[in-house]
Design goal:
Length: 160
């Protein structure tokens, strides 16, 4: 039989250990943070050092041009979205104002309708007919005198 090496046993024991998830998560975050820091340092170094060749300079310029183009497209899309949302909001506000005005007008018309319905009930009443004849047609009963004032108000005085 083959003899197991000491390294294999240590690996086996290491793989069978219980994992501490919090500790593992912290180690992973530290590694990611270090990788990001190294990447930023590399990018800074590349930006600061001049391009070695003409081809590298052209390549960098193309990348910058593409980046500017993407930013322009994103800006245009954002502007269009802002305009659409703004117009929609303005339209909604305008419609809400119109709705409030129409509701107020509807209430006013309903009050007028109730008033006219109550007036319809009294239309055949002789007292109502007399009142309307005096008010609208300026009629007076025999023996009454109608006085007109300059300010436009009409009054009547009865002479018995």
């Amino acid at each position: 039989m083959a003899r197991k090496s000491k390294g294999r046993i240590e690996k086996f024991n290491k793989n069978n250990e219980l994992l501490d998830f919090k500790k593992a998560r912290k180690e992973k975050e530290k590694a990611e943070k270090a990788a990001r820091k190294a990447h930023r340092a590399e990018q800074k170094r590349r930006r600061e050092e001049p391009p070695a060749t003409e081809a590298e300079r052209k390549h960098r310029e193309r990348r910058r041009s593409k980046l500017r183009y993407k930013r322009l497209i994103i800006g245009v899309i954002a502007a269009v979205l802002v305009l659409v949302v703004g117009f929609s909001t303005w339209n909604i506000v305008r419609l809400k104002i119109e709705q409030k005005q129409l509701v107020a007008k509807q209430e006013q018309l309903e009050k007028k309708k109730k008033k006219l319905k109550s007036e319809m009930k009294t239309v055949n009443d002789p007292e109502y007919i007399e009142q309307q004849a005096r008010r609208q047609l300026k009629m007076v009963m025999p023996g009454e005198v109608l006085y007109k004032l300059e300010d436009g108000k009409d009054t009547k005085d009865s002479n018995d």
